[in-house]
Structure formats: C-alpha cells, structure tokens
C-alpha cells in the first residue's frame, strides 16, 4: 500500500533520500502548479487530489524504483489538462515539451457530442498498447494509485467495472516491467471477488 507521501514536505524529504539526483525545486514547482490547477478537487473517497498525484510519484520512486525527473514531473501533472482548465501549451511552457508529451499520452480525450463516451474511453485505453515505455510506467503508476484501495470507492458497481477494465487493459501492459507485473498480480488476486460471476462479498 502506498500513500505515505500525503504532502509535499513528506515527499520532498523522501525524494532527498531515494532520488537525490532529482530536482526538488522543479518537482515542487510542479506540485504548486497542480495544487493551484486542481484547487478544491477531491478524490472519490474524499481525500485532497494532490494526495493522489504524490502517491503516483511515490509508486514510481519508492515502489518501482524509477528516477526519471521528467517522468516524475509528469506524474504530478498527469491530470491537469484532462481535469482542469490548464492547457498542454502551459505545461510545455513551464515544464518542457517532454513533460507535455507524457501528460498528453495519458490525457483521456473528451467525447464529441456524437460519440459514445464508453467507446472513446475504450479507444484511449487501447491506444496505450502503442505508447512509449515511459508512458506505460506513468499510466501504470496512476492506475495502481487509483485501484489499490478499490474497496473505498463509494459505488459498488464502479468497483466491479474498474476492476474489469484494469484487468482487461492495464494488466497486460505490465508485461516486461517486473515490479508492476508483480504488484498488479497481487492486486488482482486480492480483488478477485469483483470478477464477473464471483460471489458477492458478505462483509
């Protein structure tokens, strides 16, 4: 379970030990940018949104052992274009074109008026199969943060659909990335009761 890096001060101290080569100033600027952009936005279980962003960084560094600075900056910013009024151009101007590219890959497109949102989402997830390796790392860390406490989601049916979607689209992307492969396999076993046809939990 991850979630110890619940604020920037804690994350900064841990990064100084685990990834001293990463610029704390640059990551701190990304955190400030994301906090301003997301404002009072909350996660489904009610926690401040920034906790999810820092958790993605924690998974990449403390769990999977990655130190790519642009990847960590993109982890902090991965939802700002999708979920706020910030633009890809702003991300590029402030944090560079590589960060913007990483964020762009994991930004789900908004469906047009004539499009089925479920089909748009499915196409986006399928497109990840051709994504560069660092994009896959970012998306896997993001999804692992989203699902590691799946039982806290307030809607039971969403738990089931998110489990199915993760197993269908994200688990196959872990092939060749040993840490994520093991982590998602353990997660899949823990939540196997959410599979289609599995008996409903009694507690």
TrEMBL record:
Identification of the protein by name: Bifunctional (P)ppGpp synthetase/guanosine-3',5'-bis(Diphosphate) 3'-pyrophosphohydrolase
Its source organism is: Streptomyces triculaminicus
Q: Which domain of life is it from?
A: Bacteria
- InterPro entries registered for this protein in UniProt: HD/PDEase_dom, MESH1
Alphabetized GO MF terms: guanosine-3',5'-bis(diphosphate) 3'-diphosphatase activity
Q: Supply the Pfam families for this chain.
A: HD_4
Name all HD/PDEase domain ranges.
45-156
Q: Which PANTHER family match?
A: GUANOSINE-3',5'-BIS(DIPHOSPHATE) 3'-PYROPHOSPHOHYDROLASE MESH1 (PTHR46246:SF1)
């Amino acid at each position: 379970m991850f979630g110890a890096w619940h604020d920037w001060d804690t994350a900064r101290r841990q990064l100084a030990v685990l990834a001293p080569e990463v610029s704390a100033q640059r990551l701190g600027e990304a955190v400030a940018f994301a906090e301003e952009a997301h404002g009072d936005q909350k996660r489904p279980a009610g926690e401040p949104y920034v906790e999810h962003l820092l958790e993605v960084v924690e998974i990449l560094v403390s769990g999977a052992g990655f130190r790519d600075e642009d990847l960590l900056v993109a982890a902090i910013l991965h939802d700002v274009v999708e979920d706020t009024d910030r633009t890809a151009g702003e991300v590029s101007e402030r944090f560079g074109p590589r960060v913007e590219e990483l964020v762009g890959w994991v930004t789900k497109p908004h469906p047009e008026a004539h499009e089925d949102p479920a089909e748009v989402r499915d196409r986006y997830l399928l497109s990840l199969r051709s994504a560069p390796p660092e994009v896959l790392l970012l998306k896997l860390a993001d999804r692992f943060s989203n699902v590691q406490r799946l039982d806290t989601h307030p809607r039971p049916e969403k738990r089931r659909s998110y489990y199915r979607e993760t197993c269908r689209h994200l688990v196959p992307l872990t092939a060749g990335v040993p840490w994520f492969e093991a982590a998602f396999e353990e997660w899949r076993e823990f939540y196997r009761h959410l599979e289609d046809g599995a008996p409903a939990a009694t507690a």
